[in-house]
Amino acid sequence: MADGILKVGTITNSAGSGNITLPSGVTMTGAGKIIQIVQGTTSSETRNSTNTLADTTLTADITPASTSNKVLVLINQAGCDKSSANASNQMVLKLLRDGSAILTFANNAGYTNSALTNSFGSIGCIYLDSPSSTSSLTYKTQFSSGDNTAAVGVQGTGGETSTITLMEISG
Questions:
Q1: Does residue 163 carry a pLDDT above 90?
Q2: 108 phi/psi in degrees, rounded to 5
Q3: pLDDT at residue 5, rounded to an integer
Q4: Which residues on neighbouring strands pair with residue 163, listed in sequence order?
Q5: Cβ distance 88 to 82 under 8 Å?
Q6: What is the per-residue pLDDT across 25-72, written as a single tens digit (0 to 9) for each?
Q7: Contact 128, 72 (CB under 8 A)
Q8: For 61-118, what is each residue's pLDDT tens digit?
Q9: Which of 33, 103, 147, 154 is placed for a possible disulfide with 95 were both Cys, Cβ 3.0 to 4.6 Å?
Q10: Which 3 state secondary structure label does DSSP give 84?
Q11: Residue pair 51/146 in contact by the 8 Å Cβ criterion
């Protein structure tokens, strides 16, 4: 018997709706499946008044099952603010994998061109990473004061909780 390709729009059970039951020992394979999900959270207020990156205390670890798999990173960095000390003050936020920055997802955040305090809430990020690894990986966020003269903060305007969710996607 020759192998072929079957293309269909929808597969339903014999009743015309609901889930399909696979025979014992049969599994669905292919790219794009979610292999695992992990989440990290923090509500620890953290402040930084320098342009040197500092940990926000938001972190999560994942160990991919295959080097061809990807990691979908979803971040909600909550409680972001800047102090009133300088009109040029702003926040920079970066995503790191194992200590190396892989994405700047906020630059000039909270910038107002005034010396007023600015509590600007949450900053979100969605990033698809291709780490090519089966080792344990640590993803975290770091932040700095873009102006290097006044403080910026996270998880600090009212006890907000920041989250980082890591989803391993089969490659």
A1: yes
A2: 70, 20
A3: 67
A4: 41, 76
A5: no
A6: 666 667 789 999 999 999 999 999 999 999 999 999 999 999 999 999
A7: yes
A8: 999 999 999 999 999 999 999 887 777 788 999 999 999 999 999 998 888 888 888 8
A9: 103
A10: coil
A11: yes
Partner residues linked to 73 by β-bridges = 127, 166
In the block, residue with structure tokens 């000390």: 85
C-alpha distance from residue 75 to each of 31, 61, 69, 121, 125 (Å): 23, 14, 19, 13, 5
Q: Which tokens sit at 125?
A: 């990020």
Q: What is the pLDDT of residue 157?
A: 65
Q: How many angstroms separate the CA atoms of 32 and 40, rounded?
A: 23
Query: What angle is formed at CA 104 by the lines to CA 98 and CA 105, rounded to 5 degrees?
Result: 110
* Residue listed under structure tokens 């597969």: 11
* Token pair in block for residue 33: 């499946």
DSSP character at residue 23: P
Closest CA to 88 of 56, 110, 120: 110
Geometric angle at alpha carbon 40, from 36 and 44, rounded to 5°: 180
138 closest CA partner among 21, 52, 44, 55:
55
Give the model's confidence band at 17: pLDDT under 50 very low, under 70 low, under 90 confident, else very high.
Answer: low
Tokens of 49: 């008044």
The whole-angstrom distance between residue 31's C-alpha and the CA centroid of its chain comes to 21
| Residue pointed to by tokens 């966020």 | 141
